[in-house]
Specification:
Elements: E1 16-25, H1 30-36, E2 37-38, E3 43-46, E4 49-52, E5 60-64, E6 72-80, E7 86-92, E8 95-103, E9 106-111, E10 122-128, E11 137-144, E12 147-152, E13 154-162, E14 172-177, E15 182-195, H2 199-212, H3 220-238, H4 240-259, H5 261-264, H6 267-284, H7 286-309, H8 318-331, H9 336-355, H10 363-377, H11 381-406
Antiparallel strand pairs: 1-15, 2-5, 3-4, 4-15, 5-14, 6-11, 6-15, 7-8, 7-14, 8-9, 9-10, 11-12, 12-13
Length: about 425
Amino acid sequence: MLFSEGLIASIEPRLCQRGQLLLADDFANLEEVSAHWFFREHWTVAEGALIRTGIAGENKRVFVKKPRYGDCIIELKVAFQGAEEIRIMTGTPGKYNAVVLLWPHGFRVTTAQDQTVPHFPTIHGECAHRFEKGRFYQVMIEILGEEILVRVGDENHMVVGSHPILNRERDYFAFQVDRPGAAFDDVVLTSAAGRAEGWEDRYRKLEKLQSRRPWLSHEPGEQQKIREIIARDQLYRESAIFRGLVTRTQERKVAAARKFPEVFKTVKERRKKIALESKRLLAEDPVFLTFRNGINKLKRSEVELLHLLHPGLENLPEARYHIALAEAREKSKDTTAFQLVVANREIMEGKMRTRYPHLEKDGEDLLAESRSARSEVADQPDFKQVTRAIAEAARAEKEAVINAARVLEMVFAEGKENQ
């Protein structure tokens, strides 16, 4: 049960002026909702809210289809209903950008890693806040140029920060929830029309408030990780010497990968190679094409059978269809006709895996390929030389970060106290 929306205090922008309305959803009209959001069974709309369903799964996302925005104001209401972490995620083409993490005891504001720009990610700050289970809370995220302001409820519960990576065009907007369940309502995305009047004075006050409060409670290892993330970003932005260390490490890694490509190939690169091979087989191998088409046909047959077994299912709005389909699948799992279709699909998938095993490798398999390639060259003098050179450069870079982290004045709370 969600608590009354009347308990929610409205928030007005402090960093930005409101510009053009880009997205507004109160999740009341299901037909309009389906046009904006990409749904799967982990998400639905119920009781006038966007809901993370009870279907098991870790870190499941729902995202807006093809947004385009830059400086912006993001407003929403969010409620914890069993989840332990909620993420509000923005991104640039192929990369993440500003990410806000909410926990039942507080929240964190980060700028994510983006390898397309020469900067490191950072953690702008954390703020204690008790999210009562089942109650909606107002969240506002404002981004203008390199600056960001995030508030939950009022100006006392806020994080402010600045980072060059924030000054980008964005094409990604999503919510991620670690487990069932959570709810979102009154989501509004607006472009920023400029800086709000009086922001400079307000920024100084907020920055002072933020500097005086402790960070959230974390284990010692996590505390050190936070210090190092912040220190690395600060060093890279402020120290030409450190930027030189980073460049040296990267140059040595590139040189090593050029000389020993199979050893230093990433899992992402290996997956891309598999995807290209699948594409080639679709175009050139009739047997592969027959398998793929047959499997897809059997998957469609499963869905069509579920439509027959559960009248009205196919007529549901997009926002409710996928969770209903998952529930219908579970209810029909002991039905003979459904078992037969599923068995036929699984048999064909098994045959395809047997004929094309190189297309079915998981992350561990791909890592094993790198380890195997490394073992084959481990005793070669030139391989030892390049790995030693990388280790020396990385060690110098790491030592600089540790030394900088050591002098950061950061106080962490002793327990998950609520403000």
